[in-house]
Amino acid sequence: MFLSGLIVFSMKRKHLLLMLLSLEFIVLSIYFVLFMYLGIFNNEYFFSMIFLTFSVCEGALGLSLLVSLIRTHGNDYFHSFNLLW
């Protein structure tokens, strides 16, 4: 799952929305592996809740960035705006 998320992230770099979706897929795959690892060794799941909290904050930050870019430039294509100025 992680490698397919990385492949989609590297192939769909024209649209910011597709990049954010692939990043969320990568985070979900890491959470799944973490949850299975903690379940196998009978550890507490508290760290997985902290990880989920940070991933939700990261998703909200990415979505707010996407909304501000669409409001200023009209679309989410990377070639339609210049990031350097």
Automatic annotation (TrEMBL):
<dbReference type="InterPro" id="IPR039428">
    <property type="entry name" value="NUOK/Mnh_C1-like"/>
</dbReference>
<dbReference type="Pfam" id="PF00420">
    <property type="entry name" value="Oxidored_q2"/>
</dbReference>
<keyword id="KW-0830">Ubiquinone</keyword>
<feature type="transmembrane region" description="Helical">
    <location>
        <begin position="16"/>
        <end position="40"/>
    </location>
</feature>
<keyword id="KW-0999">Mitochondrion inner membrane</keyword>
<dbReference type="GO" id="GO:0008137">
    <property type="term" value="F:NADH dehydrogenase (ubiquinone) activity"/>
</dbReference>
<dbReference type="GO" id="GO:0042773">
    <property type="term" value="P:ATP synthesis coupled electron transport"/>
</dbReference>
<keyword id="KW-1278">Translocase</keyword>
<dbReference type="GO" id="GO:0030964">
    <property type="term" value="C:NADH dehydrogenase complex"/>
</dbReference>
<keyword id="KW-0249">Electron transport</keyword>
<feature type="transmembrane region" description="Helical">
    <location>
        <begin position="46"/>
        <end position="70"/>
    </location>
</feature>
<keyword id="KW-0813">Transport</keyword>
<keyword id="KW-0472">Membrane</keyword>
<dbReference type="GO" id="GO:0016651">
    <property type="term" value="F:oxidoreductase activity, acting on NAD(P)H"/>
</dbReference>
<protein>
    <recommendedName>
        <fullName>NADH-ubiquinone oxidoreductase chain 4L</fullName>
        <ecNumber>7.1.1.2</ecNumber>
    </recommendedName>
</protein>
<keyword id="KW-1133">Transmembrane helix</keyword>
<keyword id="KW-0679">Respiratory chain</keyword>
<dbReference type="InterPro" id="IPR001133">
    <property type="entry name" value="NADH_UbQ_OxRdtase_chain4L/K"/>
</dbReference>
<keyword id="KW-0496">Mitochondrion</keyword>
<keyword id="KW-0520">NAD</keyword>
<comment type="function">
    <text>Core subunit of the mitochondrial membrane respiratory chain NADH dehydrogenase (Complex I) that is believed to belong to the minimal assembly required for catalysis. Complex I functions in the transfer of electrons from NADH to the respiratory chain. The immediate electron acceptor for the enzyme is believed to be ubiquinone.</text>
</comment>
<comment type="function">
    <text>Core subunit of the mitochondrial membrane respiratory chain NADH dehydrogenase (Complex I) which catalyzes electron transfer from NADH through the respiratory chain, using ubiquinone as an electron acceptor.</text>
</comment>
<comment type="similarity">
    <text>Belongs to the complex I subunit 4L family.</text>
</comment>
<keyword id="KW-0812">Transmembrane</keyword>
<dbReference type="GO" id="GO:0005743">
    <property type="term" value="C:mitochondrial inner membrane"/>
</dbReference>
